[in-house]
Structure prediction request, 492 residues.
Amino acid sequence: MEVLDPITLVLSVVLTLFIALYFYGWRRNTYNLPPGPRPLPIIGNLHILDRNRPYQTLHQLSKKYGPVYTVQLGVQKVVVLCGYEAVKDALVNHADVFLGRPNVPLFLEISKGHGIIFAHYEIWKVMRRFTLSTLRDFGMGKEAIENKISEESDYLVKKIRSYKGEAFDNAKIINAAVANIIVFILLSKRFDYEDPTLLKLIKIVNESMQLIGTPMAMLYNAFPTVIGWCSSVRKTVMQNVDELHAFIRETFTNQKKELDVNDQRNLIDSFLVKQKEEKPYLELYFTNENLTVLVTDLFSAGMETTSITLRWGLLLMMKYPEIQKKVQSEIERVIGLSEPQVIHRKDMPYTDAVIHEIQRFGNIVPSNLPHATTQDVNFRGYFLPKGTHVMPLLTSVLYDKDHFIKANEFYPEHFLDSSGNFVRKEAFMPFSAGKRSCAGENLAKMELFMFFTRLLQNFTFKAPPEATLDLTPAVGFTAGPLAHKICAIPRV
Prediction:
């Protein structure tokens, strides 16, 4: 007897529960939402999406339905925005209207409305203001954090040298190196690359990011009431979240015992000081719950996206050795054997262009985080009621052929003029845009430049003999490279 695969089995179960789903909330509305592909009852348009990379299907659909259209994911209608002009119009020109977050079941269970990434308006506003202020105090733009990145680069170079040119998988050590930067800001400490606590935290984040981008997670978000009881994805993700939250709560509980308001060592200390200052008769924002989720958000985002970008960078340098050589020539000319510093970036237009192109081509968060309208709005000829789920598709911006002439290729010249000077591109949105853009953008830029230049200063990266360099992105909410090994040949 033929055994059904899990996706087919779940869809079969869903189709048999039409009545239950109807009472759960499936209904046609009369709003003037943008047109889109015709949905089937119950499953909507799920059947037409690429199961592993739905953002690719959504990008393709814009060629037929235009830059603003509607898809139905199960019972949920989603307005998709494609291309630079439409995404900018929403996130920048109508920033206040599109800064909400929809109640996506799995994301809601993870955050419960706390923290910064998935929090709603008032909590988000307070947490973002605090985060930006504290990152400035302890990180972004400070010489201390630049020194910390340089110090961590030394550890990373030393670790890579230990492989003596033999093939190795770089995922674990790059994750660890990048994680140590945000850990320094959050906790004022550094982990050894083999520290079991750090490895466990990295595994939790990596596994969860991968799982929430799988087809089963999409089905759970579409039909949480129906398949929640049998969702192994939800179970694993929530176990991971509980374990990470327990570590964070233990950490800040210990820090609270030795807190000195006149000597705030890290972000957690600063939060605890704010907590002591809050007036008990007013609405409280600096709660233990918000601290737990905020640290989770910052650790996950601060480690995952930057480390994936660096891994894409090294893979692309192996794939295009002539580009790697040009970067190394510029490093030799501008930096020589000195330690790279952020100030060098302005004198290194080619390296800067390559890093930008790595971010564009790598397309790390292709679907973007979901948005929601905070009020009724007439947008581009359509009426979007308050609470409309909106997907500003970042892959459609970073691969917008009106702004990147070779959008489907790795082409650093996208960011260079005819004289070789660096050129900024308005459609360069790897950190999203508007009021919900990544709070750690400036820190990430520092890390990418300093880690990348230090690595190419010290090594030439090559593929192992007979290895195939596959640029297909892995399945997950973040789109990292597939597992691969590299050889790092010492240069100095």
Notes: The chain has 18 helices and eight strands. The CA atoms of residues 4 and 10 lie 9 Å apart. Strands lie at 68-73, 76-81, 371-372, 377-379, 382-384, 389-392, 459-462, 487-490.
